[in-house]
Amino acid sequence: MSIICTYVRAKPAIMESLCADPDSIPERCFAGKDVTMIDIDRATDGLAWLASPRKRAEAAYHDRLMRDADWPDHEARRSLAAIDRMPVEDALAAIERWKEGGVIIPDIGLAAVLYPAERVPALSTALAGLTEESLRLHLDFATMDRDDVLPGNWMEEGEDLFLFYLLPYLSRLKHFYRSAADAGESVLLIWS
């Protein structure tokens, strides 16, 4: 099982009504008149890992925690504290994370975060800064497999996954945020 992040954009008043009545979200999204919804399958994890030092540090921490039964507790706590001091970059927030300026909506899916319209342009700009070249700097298929970065199979299919899976979904996500910013819309991330 993997968690999928769905992205919803709409004008602030419409988004407020969606958050007040979460059961209406699928119907409103599929009607497509005033609400736009996308998901990027399991590319969320790979994009976040490549885009964010914090995400890579979290993945390494979880990998060691799961694989190293002898890791002393004080070292694990120190490692986690160091991660907690790392900033949540806007690109990471746009892809999968709560950040200051976002509002957690606990009654939607497993969880959700709402970014108000005034916060969306900064998130869009951060995503626009992610390029094939900037992400490629962090490609490390062995480490990505070790850290269980989705969609997986990096050692066998890494270059194809990067070029034909992650990059097209990144393009789709950039377009989504750019359109939301241009239209003065709020963005809701829903985990399910």
TrEMBL record:
Record protein name field: DUF1877 family protein
Organism expressing this protein natively: Sphingobium nicotianae
